[in-house]
Fold:
Amino acid sequence: MDENKNFNDVEEFEDDDIITLISPDGEEIDFVEIAGIVHEGKFYAMLQPVELIEGMEDDEALVFEVVRDEDDNDNFNIVTDDEILDIVFKKYNDLLDSQED
Structure:
């Protein structure tokens, strides 16, 4: 997957956990929503493709920064910054740990 892709146009289906993003190439990609994490006032969505990308494991997810544009549409920008990824996954793991207590 091109790490510079911005995914615009979001379609949500009957199952609220499935989000279809349309790539700039017009390719529709279905994702399962794993979690939403807020960090420093920004919202990050952890998504896993329904059909895993080659080389991707069952327990892996992609992180997107969700940015609302002036037309009130959500744009999903894939995050490649290791520092942000580490923070988002740590917050997610902390959330899971707190639910187990």
